[in-house]
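Figure S4 source data
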Amino acid sequence: MRRHELSDEQWDTVEALLEPVRFGRPSSRGDRNFVNAVVWIAKTGAPWRDLPERFGHWRTIYNRFSNWAKSGKWEAIFKALSMGKDEIGSLLDASIVRAHQDSSGGTGGQKKTTSGGHAAVSRPRSTPSSTPRGARSTLK
């Protein structure tokens, strides 16, 4: 078993849910290979085109995935593999995402400097015109 594939126990649960009715002709690689391909895509987050060749052509896998989604097979599989609800306690994800220091609600913007030295060293805010002042057009 590879890292991104179902265990034998998980596959036994999923296999029991699969109906004998198929869309089109049967797959030469089997249902388990197809489900493992979808699990690989879900776990890696890779685009369908980057699916390893051992699973088959990516478009065939995608089309079959789409047909299963439309028929509700994936919903049944997810329900069968999900953990049961515990009446005593619940598990919540408490991931911590560190916020930037400016997101704490303080006033933003640059600090005003009182010294005149800052203006002398800072770059000009605009570029002077290359056209002499007297040659500029006043027409609007």
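Figure S5 source data
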Amino acid sequence: MPRRERWSVIGAILEAVERQREASGSDARLTRIAMAANLPYDRLVTYLEDLARTGLITDARKPDLTDKGREFLRSYRQWNEMLSRFGLA
């Protein structure tokens, strides 16, 4: 499997947080986020701490998307759609 870029990993984590929040209606489980984003748990925790520091999620232990995180995820999805239209993703 090819190495993923940092922005791709961040997008996968934010999508997993969003899906887990919608599916459960409560706090997203870190192990389920790790599985959905295809990351080892310890690496996920490091990313979540970074995302909390930058304001994309609320908290590393009980993550939820902030408005800034939702905006980033929307832009990330648009960018991926554009790349796939040109056959680059």
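Residues 6-24 form the longest helix (19 residues). The two ends are 14 Å apart (CA to CA).
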